[in-house]
Amino acid sequence: MLAPQPGERVLDIGSGPGHLLVPIAEAVGPTGAAHGVDPSPAMNALAAARTDGMPWVRIDDGDAVALPYADGVFDAAVSTQVYEYVAEIAVALGELRRVLRSGAGVDPRHGCGFAGVAHR
What is the pTM of this model? Predict the structure, then answer.
């Protein structure tokens, strides 16, 4: 399993209250970027509070089937306990592939830490 590296751009799909977004942000550091996306304004507010003081973190409204990002902008992505609730799984996985840079792959493992990280 690969962990985010300093300077990378990493997306947390379904970031919720930001529990995983904090260690992602710490791993990529201020030379990288950590983005969280979640459809819940309440969860996004919690994530924003949890990552306060980390200007390289961005929290966005959105969901797995319509990610609000340009093509190929992320080095890695993670999603924990999200895809099992997505009715349009093929669309969501297409969105994941779309926002990852060319050459990135997917680590399908589940569990703790950076499980499910899509990475090169």
Answer: 0.87
